[in-house]
Automatic annotation (TrEMBL):
<dbReference type="InterPro" id="IPR012674">
    <property type="entry name" value="Calycin"/>
</dbReference>
<comment type="function">
    <text>Binds free fatty acids and their coenzyme A derivatives, bilirubin, and some other small molecules in the cytoplasm. Involved in intracellular lipid transport.</text>
</comment>
<dbReference type="GO" id="GO:0016209">
    <property type="term" value="F:antioxidant activity"/>
</dbReference>
<keyword id="KW-0446">Lipid-binding</keyword>
<protein>
    <recommendedName>
        <fullName>Fatty acid-binding protein, liver</fullName>
    </recommendedName>
</protein>
<keyword id="KW-0813">Transport</keyword>
<dbReference type="GO" id="GO:0005504">
    <property type="term" value="F:fatty acid binding"/>
</dbReference>
<dbReference type="GO" id="GO:0015908">
    <property type="term" value="P:fatty acid transport"/>
</dbReference>
<comment type="similarity">
    <text>Belongs to the calycin superfamily. Fatty-acid binding protein (FABP) family.</text>
</comment>
<feature type="domain" description="Cytosolic fatty-acid binding proteins">
    <location>
        <begin position="5"/>
        <end position="22"/>
    </location>
</feature>
<dbReference type="GO" id="GO:0071456">
    <property type="term" value="P:cellular response to hypoxia"/>
</dbReference>
<dbReference type="GO" id="GO:0005829">
    <property type="term" value="C:cytosol"/>
</dbReference>
<dbReference type="Pfam" id="PF14651">
    <property type="entry name" value="Lipocalin_7"/>
</dbReference>
<dbReference type="GO" id="GO:0005654">
    <property type="term" value="C:nucleoplasm"/>
</dbReference>
<dbReference type="InterPro" id="IPR031259">
    <property type="entry name" value="ILBP"/>
</dbReference>
<dbReference type="GO" id="GO:0003682">
    <property type="term" value="F:chromatin binding"/>
</dbReference>
<keyword id="KW-0963">Cytoplasm</keyword>
């Protein structure tokens, strides 16, 4: 399954609680909670390029499945991690105690991030 495409956030659950647990300042949480951000994914085999736009903030991440890479987190911090594919439609990684699962089903991407007992879920649709 190919993840390539542009996706826009349709809904999200637990944004504020998760971002607070992840250490994002309250001012940024309030600014970002209602933004319907977009993600653009370019997949070439096992290589992925992600461009995530939330309001004026743009994050670029690039990785190859199974290889260590440096990624920018939601808080702007750079972390080293390895992204794995589960089945043919799930990207899974863990960094700074956060487990991130991105699942593609048709034209819908569901991203679930878990930090302790706080689960943040974001659903985006291909545009």
């Amino acid at each position: 399954m190919n993840f390539s495409g542009k996706y826009q956030v349709q809904s999200q659950e637990n944004f504020e609680a998760f971002m607070k647990a992840a250490g994002l300042p309250e001012e940024l949480i309030q600014k970002g909670k209602d933004i319907k951000g977009t993600s653009e994914i370019v997949q070439n085999g096992k290589h992925f390029k992600l461009t995530i736009t939330s309001g004026s903030k743009v994050v670029h991440n690039e990785f190859t499945l199974g290889e260590e890479c440096e990624m920018e987190t939601l808080t702007g911090e750079k972390v080293k991690t390895v992204v794995h594919m589960e089945g043919d439609n799930k990207l899974v990684t863990t960094f700074k105690g956060i487990k991130s699962v991105t699942e593609l089903n048709g034209d819908t991407i569901t991203s679930t991030m878990t930090l302790g007992d706080v689960v943040f879920k974001r659903v985006s649709k291909r545009i």
